[in-house]
Amino acid sequence: MTPSRWNRRRLAMYVGMAMLGGATVAASAAPIEGISLVGDSYAIETGGGELRVIDLYAKFSLSGWNVLFNAYNSEISLIGGGTWVHDDLSGACPGGSWLPALTPSLVANDSFVTIGATQPGATNPTIIDPLFAATPACSSSLGSGAGWANPSFDQVWQGLAKSNTLHDGATLDASVLIGRFVIDGSAPLNSVLSVNTISFTYYANSFIPTTHAGVSGSFAYVPAPGCGAVLGVGLAARRRSRSRSVGTVASSR
């Protein structure tokens, strides 16, 4: 299936799934409020070495309840060198998957996408479309136009925005986890998670789906524990104390 045909079918699926009480609701063209991206960047040590991780969140500015349904038309890449780490039930490089259902319990060792469900594993319902990179474990690009979603209203409430605790202990209100992007500790120190664009469908204080297109952001990886001296004490300390950064929000189209 070509990307254009997939996008048309995906849009029809999302609108068709927006049903409660037997009534189909129409999609809205403009968001009530904005969505920004927040990256929680941290480094860990595992039995297999050192890893550098960015947990990516969609943060809502609208008060009340917000439910994220899907992310789509994304252009996400790893800038500066290196590839994302995948080590899940489908294998490692050149295998691996972005599906969170295939991620084992050691979740920090694997990259995956999700809509809200912070714990990967068999019960995570997130689905991905065919636009994802063919060799995800060896890739530095998610795949042009890649999208992911909750499959039905039975699980859609996992996308409910809530307070999430970041790795520096700070609280991120009204947020939904949308992905974990892991690189090896030996990757170049200037590696950056670049979200050139991503679009969302969500529900904001109503059951009418709203779209927000053109959200973007750029997030630096914190150096692994053994790399701090290379950057200089001051820079390393500043990055570690400020383990998150907020992406820019483009105007909705």
Write the layout of secondary structure elements.
Layout lengths: L2 H15 L1 E2 L2 E2 L10 E12 L2 E12 L5 E14 L32 E2 L13 E2 L17 E4 L12 E4 L5 E14 L7 E13 L4 E12 L7 H4 L1 H9 L2 E3 L7
Antiparallel strand pairs: 1-2, 3-4, 3-13, 4-10, 5-8, 5-11, 6-10, 7-8, 9-10, 11-12
Summarize this structure as a short list of keywords or feature phrases.
3 helices, globular, six-stranded antiparallel β-sheet, 253 residues, disordered N terminus, five-stranded antiparallel β-sheet, 38% strand
Shape: globular
Structural classification:
mainly beta
The helix fraction, in percent, is 10-25%
Instruction: Count the beta strands.
Output: 13
Mean of residue pLDDT values: 76
Nearest-angstrom radius of gyration? 18 Å
- Flag low-confidence runs: 1-32, 228-244, 248-253
Biggest sheet architecture: 6 strands, antiparallel
Give the quaternary arrangement of the chains.
Answer: single chain
SSE order in H/E notation?
A: HEEEEEEEEEEEEHHE
Number of helices: 3
Distance between the termini: 26 Å
- Strand percentage lies at 35-45%
Write a concise synopsis of the structure shown:
The protein has three helices and 13 strands, in the order αββββββββββββααβ.
